[in-house]
Q: What sequence folds into this?
């Protein structure tokens, strides 16, 4: 399909062919002027480091400009303005709107209100499609493909939208197996489990680590727990360190959408397995490819 003018709300709105086209563009895209004279609005109602700044960088590298905010408190929302009115204004100013919000469905609502394409930069605990694009792209580049690999997805699979989006995205491919590695209370919701098309099972990290080609680690999403006592029960319950990795395949890659808290020890950074900073850097070419396809 053509990306032009399309909203980017969920990774499953794309086909494998769409994504591979994006990956090919991203792997050759480090500059351009496709966004000259265009304005991207970045509406970040929730904290972000990489997502916001890589969208900014991607826009600047393509010759465009951006407007926006990184905290709703700095906007008229603090005076009582609604989300809808805010989106309507951004729509009048910009050629695309990138939305991050704590509530699931915020990006879809924005897309219903706005004429300009809306890109979901993470809303609620379910969707983060551009992160999934970066994750798949990273594996595609490092491993030469996404099919037939054994994946471990570790951490907060209940409230983590990066892990959820990654798992949904794997439905577009044919993984040999996916191991879901999570404390009981952080296992995925039924809806996500029911949607998985590949062979999967719950597992403990130590048992499956030697089999894995890719280990996708996530932090516990403290801010999304309905009950702080439940967070206290699970915090610090898993941690990867260099010593643990002596049982893994030489070619294992460790990914993480970042930010990390304490789930990957610093001594892993120096190992050949650590791919998370490269993964984060891939945010720029992927978002350049996406913006140039959607807007230009
Ligand atoms: C993730 C997010 O915001 O969902 N961060 C990101 O965009 N790379 C992951 C997280 O916050 O844990």
A:
């Amino acid at each position: 399909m053509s990306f032009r003018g399309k909203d980017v709300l969920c990774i499953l709105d794309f086909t494998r062919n769409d994504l591979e086209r994006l990956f090919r563009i991203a792997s050759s895209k480090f500059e351009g002027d496709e966004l000259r004279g265009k304005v991207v609005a970045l509406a970040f109602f929730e904290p972000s480091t990489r997502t916001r700044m890589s969208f900014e960088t991607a826009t600047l590298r393509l010759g465009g400009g951006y407007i926006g905010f990184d905290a709703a408190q700095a906007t008229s929302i603090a005076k009582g303005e609604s989300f809808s009115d805010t989106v309507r204004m951004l729509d009048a100013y910009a050629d695309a709107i990138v939305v991050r919000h704590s509530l699931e469905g915020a990006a879809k609502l924005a897309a219903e209100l706005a004429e300009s394409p809306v890109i979901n930069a993470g809303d609620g605990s379910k969707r983060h499609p551009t992160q999934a694009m970066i994750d798949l792209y990273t594996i595609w580049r490092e491993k030469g493909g996404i099919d037939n690999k054994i994946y471990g997805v570790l951490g907060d699979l209940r409230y983590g939208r990066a892990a959820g989006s990654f798992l949904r995205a794997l439905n577009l491919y044919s993984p040999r197996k996916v191991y879901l590695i999570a404390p009981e209370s952080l296992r995925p919701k039924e809806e996500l489990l029911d949607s998985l098309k590949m062979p999967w099972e719950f597992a403990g990290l130590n048992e499956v680590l030697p089999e894995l080609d890719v280990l996708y680690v996530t932090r516990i999403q403290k801010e999304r727990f309905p009950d702080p006592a439940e967070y206290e029960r699970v915090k610090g319950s898993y941690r990867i360190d260099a010593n643990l990795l002596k049982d893994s395949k030489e070619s294992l890659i460790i990914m993480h959408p970042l930010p990390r808290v304490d789930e990957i020890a610093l001594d892993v950074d120096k190992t050949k397995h650590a791919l998370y900073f490269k993964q984060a850097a891939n945010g720029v070419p992927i978002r350049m490819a996406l913006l140039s396809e959607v807007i230009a």
In short: The chain has eleven helices and nine strands. Residues 107 and 267 are 38 Å apart (CA to CA). Residues 129-143 form the longest helix (15 residues). The chain has two domains: 31-124, 129-281.
